[in-house]
Write a structure and sequence with these properties.
By secondary structure, the protein is mainly α. It has a single domain, classed as Four Helix Bundle (Hemerythrin (Met), subunit A), CATH 1.20.120. It has five helices and no strands. The chain starts with a helix and ends with a helix.
């Protein structure tokens, strides 16, 4: 495996680790009592599901993975932002507060990893 491939694979791994955290948030929200009274909570669940499913099929293809992440990240960020604004109105419970932090960190790390992957690809294209 070339250095570029290894670096991109590391970026994919970092993203997948963040997606694992997001998946746990999805499970928490889906099984919370609050989802019955606030169906808009399903939006973050759907966003996590959609992003996870879109990315998981491309784990062995870093270039395809980051192309898909480029397509899907904006929608995920919007869902995270909406979720972050919604939660204080729904619950002050620590679990919900922590889930907001988890989704925000996930969106940030995905963006950072995407930026890093682009820099790696550009650096290797100019060689």
């Amino acid at each position: 495996m070339s250095s570029m491939e290894e670096q991109l694979a590391e970026c994919v791994q970092r993203c997948q680790e963040q997606m694992a955290h997001a998946w746990v948030v999805r499970a928490f929200v889906r099984h919370s009592d609050e989802i019955e009274d606030f169906p808009e909570l399903t939006n973050i669940c759907r966003a996590i599901f959609d992003l996870s499913r879109a990315l998981e099929t491309r784990v062995d293809d870093p270039v395809g993975y980051f192309k898909m992440l480029t397509k899907k990240l904006g929608k995920f960020r919007v869902a995270v932002d909406e979720y972050s604004k919604l939660i204080p109105e729904i619950s002050t419970h620590t679990n919900f507060g922590q889930s907001v932090i988890s989704t925000q960190v996930c969106a940030r790390v995905l963006g950072e990893s995407l930026d890093k992957a682009k820099k790696i690809a550009i650096a290797n294209t100019s060689k």
